Amino acid sequence: MSMVHMRARNRLSATFVKTAPVGKHCDGAGLWLVKREDGGAQWVLRTTVHGRRREMGLGGYPDVSLAHAREAGDRWRAVAKSGRDPVKEREKEAKAARREDISLSVITQDAFEARMAELKGDGKAGRWMSPLENHVLPKLGKVPVTDLDQRDIRDTLAPLWHTKAETARKALNRLSIVLRHAAALGLDVDLQATEKAKALLGKSRHVAKHIPAMPWQDVPDFYASLSEQTPSHLALRLLILTGARSAPLRTLHLDQIDGDVWTIPGEAMKGRKGATEDFRVPLSSEALHVIDAARPFARNGFLFANSRKGVISDMTLSQLMKRRELQARPHGFRTSLRTWLAEATDAPHEVAEAMLAHLTDSNVVRAYRRTDYLDQRRELAERWANHVSGSCK
């Protein structure tokens, strides 16, 4: 029985192959020798993948001997048996082999170029690449991606892990994307390497540095000093009055204002994890006065347009404070407002947090609550504006 079975697989002999007549000769298990009229001969393997017939050439005879053709046949049959297409698998291998260089730096550049279209401004500024260029590629750039493991990554990022946590986190994230890109190219990489490295690095001891904030008692003097009718002075005034983040404020569009409410679109609400809903900001009479003063500068509906095109930059507002030799920065006014709310008012915690668009509850609790405390916030916004502008009521 076993001899019959063997013959069903290895029907041809080396002697027969040498003098085989023109035609197709079956060695068994899908391996064929195809002898041509011109005397040449070719090995062909027939397999079935997901019910579809596949044929692949295994090379010519005598360059590929009967023994080598059988070895190759065994290998590609196993691939087909596992449900993968042997022809495509071989193409992937050839593509990987054609890359003289499969170093991390080459594959990183390849991954970056493949993602450029999705990166918007990040691509142009090179910010996507900088965590890798500055901290990973100098040490690991020459390592073939197929050799990269969690210990390499751990050793490279360990110096940053407790000091520059955000940079290290970004580097790990980018590295994971590069490894997935390498896998898509058919390279045999460890897709779990970054997760394993994270486990080896442990919990970060990094303490976030807070943006310097101006004490709320000093805000009125600074506010009074913003006396010029310029987009930057008026934008900083409105930033202080509303407690908004810089990006939604700088890109404020007149369509977003309805009466005394400014509605920030959900997609502009950075920092509101898991939230996509719009956020309503009550505008005090002082804030409405600032908006009216800025209207003559509006262009294409944007209230704080810059002198060229687009809107004023974050840097413009920061530089204004830097030039005055202040430690505080624009984002810090959110802290000034939050501290004032805690120390100078009896606003409930959830209302005070809502003033800064901070989420205090789970999605479920918020869904049931169905309120953004607009009326309470309107009253507090008016009181903050009175404090800031020196008005008393």
UniProtKB/TrEMBL annotation:
GO terms for biological process: DNA integration; DNA recombination. It holds the Pfam family Phage_int_M. It comes from the Bacteria. The keyword DNA-binding applies. GO terms for molecular function: DNA binding. Residues 209-381 form the Tyr recombinase domain. Belongs to the 'phage' integrase family. PANTHER family: PROPHAGE INTEGRASE (PTHR30629), PROPHAGE INTEGRASE INTS-RELATED (PTHR30629:SF2). This is Phage integrase. It comes from Actibacterium atlanticum.
